From TrEMBL:
<protein>
    <recommendedName>
        <fullName>Cytosine-specific methyltransferase</fullName>
        <ecNumber>2.1.1.37</ecNumber>
    </recommendedName>
</protein>
<dbReference type="GO" id="GO:0009307">
    <property type="term" value="P:DNA restriction-modification system"/>
</dbReference>
<dbReference type="InterPro" id="IPR001525">
    <property type="entry name" value="C5_MeTfrase"/>
</dbReference>
<dbReference type="GO" id="GO:0032259">
    <property type="term" value="P:methylation"/>
</dbReference>
<keyword id="KW-0949">S-adenosyl-L-methionine</keyword>
<dbReference type="Pfam" id="PF12728">
    <property type="entry name" value="HTH_17"/>
</dbReference>
<dbReference type="GO" id="GO:0003886">
    <property type="term" value="F:DNA (cytosine-5-)-methyltransferase activity"/>
</dbReference>
<comment type="similarity">
    <text>Belongs to the class I-like SAM-binding methyltransferase superfamily. C5-methyltransferase family.</text>
</comment>
<dbReference type="Pfam" id="PF00145">
    <property type="entry name" value="DNA_methylase"/>
</dbReference>
<keyword id="KW-0489">Methyltransferase</keyword>
<dbReference type="InterPro" id="IPR010093">
    <property type="entry name" value="SinI_DNA-bd"/>
</dbReference>
<dbReference type="InterPro" id="IPR018117">
    <property type="entry name" value="C5_DNA_meth_AS"/>
</dbReference>
<keyword id="KW-0808">Transferase</keyword>
<dbReference type="InterPro" id="IPR050390">
    <property type="entry name" value="C5-Methyltransferase"/>
</dbReference>
<dbReference type="InterPro" id="IPR029063">
    <property type="entry name" value="SAM-dependent_MTases_sf"/>
</dbReference>
<dbReference type="InterPro" id="IPR031303">
    <property type="entry name" value="C5_meth_CS"/>
</dbReference>
<keyword id="KW-0680">Restriction system</keyword>
Length: 484
């Protein structure tokens, strides 16, 4: 055990909130010392407190090299369910899906304070840690209580160092980039399977983004600016650790989710064998022997509670002229310039403006707020945004799942979540492979609207753009760049 524990670690071990632990510290019940804005608890003091309050401490947290923590083969009959650890857990949409598929979530990791409250409200006994950069492999094994193999680690890490925001240091930002920290931690923990979920933009993210304003006439794209470099770099690191990598861009409507939402899902296997693409459970037109997509009407029927934000009156007057499934182009032509303002003359379809949903189709992609002008999400017949209850149904959360925070924070958590049914489909794909069941999607199935988004065709395209030979890796070009 390490010399000191944080309040977050103590709260996970005591199955109490961090606030309760801080109260015990302030009253002197639990000895601790302050380090800046953080309380640190000596391991010996915590062990003494725990044994006085709860019983044997060693039985709860065996060390990795303890004789009682022997290597246990995964799923040899000694475990009822395969074990999973969750990182970047958010509101636990992916985790709920994995649970439905049959996994036992042993630990959650989330830095957002409101999401932490949501997790604690719904899973008070689940060990919860914060910033992934503050924990070692041994910390995570100790707090999760996992001995031996970890069956699955799943998470949707932010792509900060590769995004268009911030310092954009890309692969140079090794320590500060939580995505790369996550990859390094995966390699240390060595789970049987890895699931990484992310936005479609990951497919085209460069290693280092150059803002358009900084691209003068002599600007050259270079290796760091080529689309797809970030993901190719991540793939090489995972393969270097012995994992197979398969991914695709999936529309969640094909998996029973009443929502058109496209996300990259990567599944990696430690044994090096390829995990098939996730078999769909629905199709837009009912082809391939599958049922048709689930509609918004089906998703929200029976709801009685309705808590929602409001549209300003200057937008409501135009919404009152639109019916289900319509948007700004369905307004009378003479009103369109007034409704759209300065956006009217911009290029593109602008399909998110004044958007009323259709009852008989899945919802559009839920965003973190339904009232932003360019991404409005209006009820099909009522003059209001979708409610948080409707958001929950569309994302397949149980009605009794508690979301902490005010309306703004609830919308944000739900909008950022992985739909629960999508998480369940991911979990089933992993379990099928784990148990040797060959479940393949129908030949020619359209996983999304886009082409060349599966790992095979995507990698061939990106490697060609980098001029990489058959066995050459991107990392070799990066090394040459560093030493040049």
């Amino acid at each position: 055990m390490q010399d000191f524990l944080t309040t977050a670690e103590a709260s996970a071990l005591l199955h109490k909130t961090a606030q309760s632990v801080r109260t015990m510290i302030r009253t002197g019940e639990l000895p601790a010392q302050r380090a800046g804005r953080t309380w640190l608890i000596k391991a010996a003091d915590f062990k003494k407190f725990y044994e006085q309050s709860c019983g044997s401490f060693s039985a709860l947290t065996p060390s990795a090299d303890d004789a009682s923590c022997k290597e246990v083969p995964a799923n040899d009959g000694s475990r009822k369910k395969p074990v999973a650890l969750s990182f970047f857990s958010g509101a636990m949409g992916l985790d709920l899906g994995l649970e439905k598929a049959g996994f036992d979530i042993k630990l959650a990791c989330e830095v957002d304070k409101t999401c932490q409250k949501t997790i604690r409200a719904n899973r008070p006994d689940l060990p919860l840690i914060g910033d992934i950069r503050s924990y070692t492999k041994d910390d995570i094994l100790r707090l999760s209580g996992v001995c031996g193999d970890i069956d699955l680690i799943a998470g949707g890490p932010p792509c900060q160092a590769f995004s268009t925001a911030g310092a954009r240091r890309g692969f140079e930002d090794e320590r500060g980039n939580v995505f790369l920290v996550f990859i390094d931690l995966l390699k240390e923990l060595n789970p049987r399977y890895i699931v990484i979920e992310n936005v479609r933009g990951l497919l085209s993210a460069p290693l280092k983004h150059t803002p358009h304003a900084a691209r003068d006439e002599g600007w050259v794209e270079g290796i760091l600016g080529k689309p797809g470099g970030a993901l190719l770099y991540i793939i090489e690191r995972l393969r270097g650790a012995g994992y197979s990598v398969s991914f695709n861009l999936y529309n969640t409507a094909n998996y029973g989710v009443p929502q058109l939402r496209e996300r990259v899902v990567m599944i990696c296997s430690r044994d090096g064998s390829r995990v098939p693409y996730i078999a769909p459970t629905a199709d837009q037109y009912g082809r391939f022997g599958l049922p048709v997509w689930k509609t918004l009407r089906e998703a929200v029927q029976g709801l009685t509670s309705c808590h929602h934000s409001e549209f300003p009156e200057k937008r409501l007057k135009f919404y009152r002229l639109l019916g289900p499934g319509q948007y700004w182009k369905d307004l009378p032509e003479e009103l369109q310039p007034e409704a759209m303002g300065s956006s009217y003359s911009l290029p593109g379809g602008k399909t998110g403006f004044y958007r009323r949903l259709s009852w008989d189709r899945p919802s559009c992609t839920l965003v973190t707020s339904p009232t932003m002008p360019a991404t409005d999400i209006c009820h099909p017949t009522e003059d209001r945004p979708l409610s948080v209850e409707e958001y929950k149904r569309i994302q397949c959360f149980p009605d009794d799942w508690i979301f902490a925070g005010d309306l703004v924070r609830q919308y944000k958590q739900i909008g950022n979540a992985v739909p629960v049914k999508m998480g369940e489909a991911i979990g089933r794909a992993v379990l099928n492979h784990m148990h040797g069941r060959q479940v393949l999607p129908p030949e020619g199935f359209p996983f999304s609207r886009y082409k060349l988004t599966d790992d095979v065709s995507w990698e061939a395209k990106v490697r060609a753009s980098f001029g990489l030979q058959q066995n050459e890796e991107l990392s070799s070009q990066l090394q040459e760049l560093k030493t040049a």
